[in-house]
Structures are given as C-alpha cells and as structure tokens.
Amino acid sequence: MDKGFNWMAGGPQGSGVDTAANIFGKACGYGGLYVYGRREYHSNIKGLHSYFHLRVSSNEVLANVNDVDMLAAFDAETVVRHIDEVVPGGGIIVDESQLNVKVLEIPTLPREFKVELREHIKNKGIGDSLADLLTDAEKRGIQVFQVPYMDLLKQIASKLGIEKLSKITRMVNVLTLGISFGLLDYDATLVEKAVRTTFSEKLKIIEMNMLALNLAFDYAKTNFSKNFSHRLPIISTEERRIFLSGNQAVAVGKILGGCRVQTYYPITPAADESEYIEAHQILGTTVLNMKAGVVVIQTEDEIAAVNMASGAALTGTRAATSTSGPGFSLMVEGLSWAGNNEVPVVITYYQRGAPSTGLPTRHGQDDLKFAINAGHGEFPRIVLASGDIRECFYDAVMAFNYAEKFQLPVIHLIDKALANSSQTFPLFDIKRIKIYRGEVWDDKRLEGIEYRRFLFTETGVSPRVVLGTRNGVHWYTGDEHNEFGHISEEPINRTRMMEKRMKKLETIEKEVPISERVNFFGDSDAENMILSWGSPKGAIIEALNELHREGFSLGFLQIRMVHPLPSEHVRETLKRAKRIIDVEMNYSGQLGEIVREKTSVSMNFRILKYNGRPMTTTEVYEALKRVLTGNAPERQVLMYGS
Amino acid sequence: MVLEWQDFKSDIFVDWCPGCGNYGILAALQMALAELNLEPHRVVLVSGIGCSGKVPHFVKTYGVHTLHGRTLPFAQGIKIANPNLEVIAIGGDGDGLGIGVGHLVNAGRRNVDMTYLIHDNGVYGLTKGQASPTLQRGLKVKAIPSPNINEAVNPIMLAIASGYTFVARAYAYDTKHLKEIIKKAIQHKGLAMVDILQPCPTYNDINTKEWYAGEDRVDPKTGKPTPRLYKLEELGYDPVVHNSDEDLGKKIAAIEKAREWGDKIPIGVFYKNELIPTFQERITKRIPFYIENPPAKQKICDDEGLPVTDVDVFFEELKII
C-alpha cells in the first residue's frame, strides 16, 4: 500500500497547530501532491492538546493510515501522546528545552492516561523524563531532532527589534514547519507561497513568519538534513485542484444550490459552516446585474433555528439549518411539524460522539437511527449520508432538490470526520449540477380555482404555492388537516391524509434513480460484501483496493440515501455474497440493523469503532483481512487513535 | 378595492366558548386588516398552540398555525425571507411567556418589523384551566386545586427589557380601542407587541369581564361600577421616543405604568421607538439589495435548471493548483 508521507503536528490548543497544518497541506498541494488531513482537538479553548494528522502522496489519498513519519511536537505532551505512532525511519522534532520534563507531571495529561503511561514506563524499565522516552524511541530506529526554539525565537526578536519574547512565542508553529520542510529538503518557495496565502493581506505577519520559516529551514538543512531519508516528490500537473474541509464543501454546495436563508445556533462541529456562509453572503450570479444574498441568522436556540428555517421555506426560499446531535434533539418537534406540513426544509446534521454532550469535538456515527426516526408520528423524510467531502458538496445541492420536489424535510447527515478533515480534490464539476424545484403554482395558474395546499394526488405531492402569492391563500397547521390546511379530526380525511403523505416514499422509490442512492465499489459478484455509510468510505476503499491487489474478491455497497433505504437493491446486492461485513462508527452497527429490518438480510461480520477517532485505512484493512482469512470474530472493535 | 372586515372572514366555524375574549380579538383584527386595506394574500397570520392558535383558520389570509411557543421563530423566518409580507404573530400567554419566553426575549433583540399579539387570560384554556405565567401569585382560579404558587410575569416590562420598540396593552372587549392599537402595531416600524387582556369565561373566574368592568366596586354616590381599566392616552401619556436621549426616561415611565395592576390597569401604548433600526434595515446594511430582491424572490437557477449563483469566488479561495 502506498502509505505516502505522514506528518503530524501537535501542541496546546491556541498554539497555531491548525495554521501550521494548513500551511503544510497547502505547500504539499502546491507541489502537486494529494493531501488528506484530520484535525483533532479537545472541547477547550486554550491549553489542552490538539493535533493535525496529514497524509500526502503523489497518489490520491482518502483517509489516514496509522503511521506517523514525522512528528512535529510543539510541546512535551505531543511527544508523550504520539510517540508510539511514529514508525521506524521516522523522526520527532522536539523543543530541546522540554527534554527534562517529567512526563508524569504534565498537568494537562488526564489521570487515566497517566495510569497507562506509568505502567508503560515501568514495563519498559525506562526513566520518566521526556529524554528517556525519546532515547527509547531512538532504539526503535526513530530519529530525534532537538531544536533550540528559544534561541531561534531570540534571533527573530533581535532581527525584528521586538523586546518581549512572549509576543512571538506563537511562531514556534512556523519554526516547526521550517524544520519539517528543511528535513525533507522540500522546495522552500512552495512553503513561502503557502505562508503568504495563509496570512493573506497581513503583510507584517507574513514578513515575520517568512523570517521564522527561513531561519528554521536553514537550521534544519545545516544541522539535520543529511540524516533524514524521507523526501516529498514534486509532481507537475495541469489539473486544477482545491483543498477544503467538509464544512466548507457543504457551505459552497448549499449556496450553489440556492440556499438563501441559513439559521443556526452555535455548536461543534457545525457552526463553522454557517460562519463560512456568512463570510461570503453576497455573491455574483450569471444573471446580468443580479447578485445573490444569503441571510444567515444566529438564533437563540435550535428550536428557533429549525422553525425559522421552516418559516422561510414556506415563502419559497431555499432554507436550511445546521446542527449537531444535541441541537438536533431540540429540533425534533419542529421536524415533525415540517413533516406534517410538507415543508421543504433542509437540516444539515453533523454527528459527533454521543450520547448527551458526549465527545463534543470528536467523531462518531451514533445518530443514524435517530435521524431516521426522530419526531413523533409517522411522516416521510429523506436522510442523505455523505461519504466524503466531495459528496458533502453534491449532496448539499441534492438535499434541496429532494426537499422541494417531494415537499418534505431532508436531513443531510455528515460527521465530525468529514466536517473537520481537509482534502485535495480536482475542482468540482458544477456543470453536472441541476436544480429542480418541483411543481410551484403562481398567481396566474391559480386564477379562478379554489386552491388546496394539500390536494390529494397520485404521487402524494400537491402543487405548491408559496406564501404571498395572489389567489393562493391557504393554511398550515400541525394538527391533522384537510386539503385546505384547516384542522380536521374526521376519520376518513385522517386516513387519506396519512396515506397521501406516506405515499411520497413510494414516489421517491419510483423517481430517484438508484445511482443517486448508493455507490458501489469493487466486484459486484464478490463473495465478500462490505456495507457502510458516511465517512468510513475513504478508509474502506483504500483497504479494498489493497485487498484486491492481494487477490481477494470484495465489493463495497455504500448507502447514500439511508432513508428511505433502497431495500430491493440492497437485498439483491447483498444476497449474492457469502459474507456481509458491516463497517460503522457506532456501537451497535445501526445500518446493519436497519438493513436487516428492511431486507431480512443479516450481517455476518461487524467492524465497529466508537472511540471518537475516525477509522484509518490501516485498521480497516487489518480487520477486513481477518474476516477474509477466517480469523475474525463476528464483532471487531477498532481502537486506533490518540 | 376597499376591503371590509367580512373580506377577512374564512368559512370555518369559530369554536371558542360563548363569551370568550377571543371573539373580540378576532373581530378587531379583521377590522384592522380591512381598515389598513391590506390585501389578504399579502398578510400571514402565524400562531402557536392553544385557543389563540386557531385564529388564523378563522381569517381569510395566509395562515400558519405552528407549535406551542414557537410562533415567533416561524413568523420571523417568514418575514426575514420575504420582508414584503405583513406578518402578524399570535400566541397565548402560556405560549409566549411560558414555553416560548426565550423566543419572546430574543425576538426583541432583533426588532423584526412585524406584530405580535398576546392573548392574555391568565390560564391555559385548551388544557382545561391551569395557571398561566400571567396569573398573579395566590389566586385560585376555578380549575386549579390550590392557589397559584408562582409569581406572575409582566409582559409589558419583559417586552421593554427585551428591546421591543412598540409595547401596548389592550382589552379584548373594548374592540374599537383594540382595533386601533392593532392598527398602530401593524403600522409601527419595528417589532410591536400588544398584550391583550382577555377574560376566559370558562376557567378564569377571577379576572372576569365583570371584574375588569369593576362591578364589585360600585360608587355609592352614582350607583355605577368603577372600571379597573383606563386609557393611557386619556392621561396625556406620551409613549413616543422622539430622540434617542429620551429613550431611558420613556422606558422607565413605561415600566412604572406597567407595574400598575389591581384597581387601576392602564391600557394603550406604553412605549414606541422607531429610532432603533429594524432587522430588515440591519440586513440591508450587509446586503444592500435585500428588500428589492429578498431571499424568497431570488432567482437561483435558469430555465434549464442550471444554478445561476457564481461560486468561483470560493473555488478561487480554495484553489491549490
């Protein structure tokens, strides 16, 4: 397997880890490399450990692997937490002033971590200073690069005429970059370009960081570079590429898809999307002299967010809200109202580790069944689950199309791994995107008729009129209602109205092509079939490709429309296989259970993970291989991650 | 075309209890809409849950009967998406001051240009007479087993503290006065709240029509009852903030008036300030074409369904090579 080169930077939150990683990723991207980067952080503003794990390669990369080839540590804790992930031949960049730190006394390390660390040190029979741990790592063939960050900062301070060193300590992040790229002997001009675009418009900051970068770069080249064998190739390509996160992909997709009102209440990991939209709320259009304007509203809570979005949707606006598990919990009553009133509202749902507050900044796919079943009563909805950042973009458009075509709420399920990971892609092809708005009647069409908002139809979908249309006055109510939208408790009307709404599920079955509802990879007649949804997609595809090369027959059915499930297709696809392997980031294998309920097909093996860290290609590969070689229990729980 | 109140009458049977204050509110609302000559299709009535929640069904305009306590979020969503609509939110005291009070407060911070009518009768009628947030502590209305243990919230004071720029009170049985107050509220530039005192003949056997009329307080000289309600305008009370320096003083005056209850209950406009920018004006500062081309009217695709929004600016920003 081409594991590529794996760089990890870590330090206390607020010390510029993200910025450093962003610059590293960009610099590699400028050199024609593909980049996949995962961001990990605590629910904390400043001080607790955060890190960024970047994988770069001349081939496309879809997920992380377990390896770390270079660990750029801003502090001692980063070394302690990640030292075992560094592979032989790899390197650790460390601040020489930290070497005497007693690792068991690092105040930010949690008690349960220290218990394990103490045990580890005891078993190895080594000392408890950072230097002791590093010496032990060197025995495994790992190189340690001690950098005098303080001296370098002093040199910078004197060159810039800055008296207080504390003003520039944050520049350790750029020093680390300089050391990293110096060790790799990478093209410095590409790194400089990345620094420039990252600190765009702030000339003074660019100048300071350039100085730091070059100082560290030269320091590494002079002192270390001969010892480090890894090199990054520079690939020349004509392809236009972008580097973006899932939050950004959803935002751009929504805007392109016509979202003009977005409501939100701040919550991780959803809020970045809304803020990104607001930062770009005025856009050009292809229509002469017309601009597009997106109103973004920060509401008092998620109850207001969903209901405000529904209100906006009734006016014919494409309206959405964005949230995570706790927020979605509050939206549930509003979701039921939207279902009953056939409102085309879109809810972008970023899952994170749950239940309750759970792991606010960590990954999970715990909420599939919740998204599908939330809301009292039975009503149709569509739940889409994107498998990668590119799908986040296209699905953001499709969510609106489905919502308006079928007049129902659409939940777009994403997760923390997609939201906060960044990846390089060939520029998205927007020519293939179409907008369809369903049947909407205007004042002329309404002349002389008595309009019925909830007209009984064959498809369950009634022609729509937006609030404010002349000749179209009608009503909405959360009560059961008649065709006009007035309250009705009559048994016959109730039965027909339930059937009208639920009929939409059959209409979706007829009208949405299977190609929009599932993806398939590998051999369609494979003996071994993987079933999954959402962000494990990348790791699964890479593992599958590797197992293919080894001669295993393997297929992968990725469900994108998780509700309504394309049951017939899923059954037909799965029943051909001898072994069905469910791969999911939750405890119970929720999709597997849903598939069994809808198709009577049971999972033979489950590969699950719920430690808050996304699946890596390495561990998915290993778990699948255990299944294929007859060495796996029915249920495997993956554990990688720090 | 000149509109009559009957033009705003739907064909739905009005199913409130006989003698309910809601009849007066419904009539005043229909008259106000007619007198302002608002075309029915331009008006959206948004309601919550409870007896007041049914109002939109009885009025021939667009009607959105929503969830308990959520009338304001829906109404704001509608108005923000299409600022050319006349949006009137309606809710009960339990709806707006109990379950939905967070929305009431935060709506004040936005000052969306719309109207909010609170049907205030001190009880939860449709669930059979429990104490609402406006029932005074110690009162035992008919259906509750023991006297109300909670203090009452004051809607006028709360609205002023929350930033409403038009705060008024009216009485359901003084339909003419109520109609005028509703008209003023609709015409006000900014978020207007009207606290409408309303007897509940079925469940509130204390704050009754007779109690408001002061029938328990007969003047021995004239032999006539002494009404509890009086009109602020008759005192020469000026609620209007003419320049921003006056704002604090007017707010304090309004709060002082709002504290009156019991023997003397003021109705009328307590506070009015059109110097605070509306939410629409605030959005227009960010999106200059917002009113002419609001979210609801923006063209998002061409006749072939191709998106018209130019997202190149994003791709330029995210471009790596």
Beta strands of chain B, count: 10
Spatial strand order of the main sheet of chain B: 2-1-3-4-8-7-10-9
Strand content of chain B: 15-25%
- Radius of gyration of chain A from CA coordinates: 27 Å
Give the N-to-C terminal Cα separation of chain A.
Answer: 23 Å
Low-confidence stretches of chain B: none
How many alpha or pi helices of chain A? Answer: 21
The CATH homologous superfamily of the largest domain in chain A corresponds to Pyruvate-ferredoxin oxidoreductase, PFOR, domain III
**Biggest sheet of chain A: strands side by side, in what order?**
6-5-4-1-3-2-16-7
Rounded to an integer in angstroms, the radius of gyration calculated over CA atoms of chain B is 22 Å
Q: What is the top-level CATH class of the largest domain in chain B? A: Alpha Beta
Please give the share of residues in helix of chain B: 25-40%
The computed structural class of chain B is alpha/beta
> What is the CATH architecture descriptor of the largest domain in chain B?
3-Layer(aba) Sandwich
Percent of residues in helices of chain A comes to: 25-40%
Largest interface summary: A-B, 85 and 64 residues
CATH superfamily label of the largest domain in chain B:
Thiamin diphosphate (ThDP)-binding fold, Pyr/PP domains
